[in-house]
Amino acid sequence: MKRLDGQVALVIGAGTVGGGWGNGKACAMQFARDGAKVVCVDLDAALAEEAAAEIRAEGYEAISLAGNATKSADMKAAVDAAVQTYGRLDSMVNNVGIVVRGGVVELSEEDWDRAFAVNLKSAFLSMKHAIPAMIANGGGSIINISSISSLKYLNKPYVAYYSTKAAMNHMTRVTAAEYASKQVRVNAILPGLMDTPMARISAEKNWGATPEKMAEYWDKRAAQVPMGWLGDAFDIARAAVFFASTDARWVTGQCLVVDGGTTLGL
Ligand SMILES: NC(=O)c1ccc[n+]([C@@H]2O[C@H](COP(=O)([O-])OP(=O)(O)OC[C@H]3O[C@@H](n4cnc5c(N)ncnc54)[C@H](O)[C@@H]3O)[C@@H](O)[C@H]2O)c1
User: How far apart are the first and last CA of the chain?
Assistant: First the structure.
């Protein structure tokens, strides 16, 4: 028996920008490896299909769907696709998230609104449609991908990112409280400093870390982690599988920090 045998999972933001393994794609793959049938949704149809195709190439079941997580109709379509294709919806990972640089003085109003739409409204909309489908099925598990930046200042000016992730943590707790009696569990994962394509792209775009200087930049980043190394996307995916599995059947409303100890000095 695998931990997620018989489950149907929906991953919103299942692609990886820049190739390799981001958190969303790793979640989709790990859920499949642990027994779930997976619906991979992404703004970019090709990235969603890439994730689903890699899952099928390993012999598991997955479909892909293009969808914008900031659009209610697209999130309804994603939930409907899971139910119509596989008959039910057991778990959902809300992974979409963008970093926009700036403190309150420098950040434009448009970027503030965009960050709140992509990072927060997305999870509100997907949960709005997924929770009734889960209740119809006796319950389910929602996993919101937050960040340790919801807890502390990380020495970088990302006011909108920090704020959206802090709001996501509390949305997780209150939604967990609201639907606990219906057996819908809602938890968040707070990744720390990671080695993912998203982190590398951000380092190049925002901090001038050229490909040649990336190793040096990465060593400095790893030095901020008490365990001494950067986590990868599967560290997040395995934590998400725990929340989706019956091992976590009495765990709800929690914000699990997965960061090699970085926030211990809070
Ligand atoms: N990678 C890290 O270092 C790190 C650290 C802490 C937290 N996180 C969090 O993890 C999540 C993303 O990690 P990742 O590595 O998978 O990133 P990623 O950028 O590789 O993947 C995110 C996917 O979401 C998709 N997406 C963006 N906007 C969308 C929208 N409106 N609708 C549907 N899909 C959309 C993108 O196309 C992309 O494929 C974010 O919530 C981020 O805040 C990441």
Answer: 40
10 near 67, Cβ under 8 Å?
Answer: no
Name the residue with tokens 């979409």: 96
Helix, strand, coil fractions of the chain, as percent rounded to 5: 50, 15, 35
Would you please indicate which residues are annotated as catalytic (active-site) residues?
A: 161
With the CA atoms of 96, 134, 77 and 124 taken in that order, what torsion angle do they form, in degrees rounded to the nearest 10?
Answer: -40
pTM of the model: 0.97
What are the tens digits of pLDDT across the range 17-46? 988 999 999 999 999 999 999 999 999 999
- Measured from the Cα of 236, ligand 1's closest atom is 10
Report the amino acid identity of residue 159: V
Tell me which of 25, 30, 43 to substitute to probe ligand 1's pocket, judged by most ligand atoms within 8 Å of the beta carbon.
Answer: 43
In the chain, the DSSP E strands lie at 8-12, 37-42, 62-66, 91-94, 140-145, 184-191, 255-258
The residue ranking higher by pLDDT, 61 or 211, is: 61
Q: Which domains can be identified in the chain, with CATH numbers?
A: 8-192+232-255 (3.40.50.720), 196-230 (no CATH)
The string of pLDDT tens digits covering residues 183-212 is: 999 999 999 999 999 898 888 887 888 888
C-alpha to C-alpha distance for 171 and 173, rounded to whole angstroms: 6
pLDDT at residue 21 in the model: 97
| Nearest partner of 172 among 112, 225, 119, 103, judged by Cα | 119
